[in-house]
Specification:
The protein is 17% helix and 38% strand. It is α+β, with helices and mostly antiparallel strands.
Length: 133
């Protein structure tokens, strides 16, 4: 099995209600709008999950939408999120490989530590060290 899989996708939104309605109506995704404690994030369930919110079908991922605000790290573009075991070690590996870390890891309650980076081609990518369950 490959190490550090893509585990999540993210896209920006300008209107929380509108984006939630669009993806629910157009694709049948289960959309959950969060409040200020999670930064107004909208989760998008595109695949069935277990009690730990892990997808049941190999090769599928869930995702979410973040508000298009100045506080968000990096450009507001669609990005994938890579799951890592140790975010500090992964940040060092990214920098050593020629990537650029954008800010410091942010703790997302009950989810884990997250940080964005750009790769050598300028693509915006996220990394997530999941919280212990």
């Amino acid at each position: 099995m490959s190490k550090n899989p893509v585990i999540h996708f993210e896209m920006p939104y300008k209107d929380q209600d509108r984006v939630a309605k669009f993806y629910a109506d157009a694709f049948g995704w289960h959309m959950d709008k969060t409040g200020p404690e999670y930064g107004g994030y909208v989760t998008a369930a595109t695949a069935e999950t277990d009690a730990n919110r892990m997808v049941q079908t190999p090769g599928t991922i869930n995702g979410g939408f973040f508000p298009d605000t100045p506080e968000i790290q990096g450009p507001k573009v669609t990005r994938v999120v890579i799951g890592v075991e140790d975010i500090q070690a992964a940040m060092k590996d990214v920098a050593a490989g020629g990537g650029k870390i954008l800010g410091e890891p942010i703790e997302i309650p009950q989810i884990g530590l997250w940080v964005n980076f750009t790769d050598t081609e300028g693509n915006l990518v996220g990394m997530l060290q999941t919280a212990p369950r």
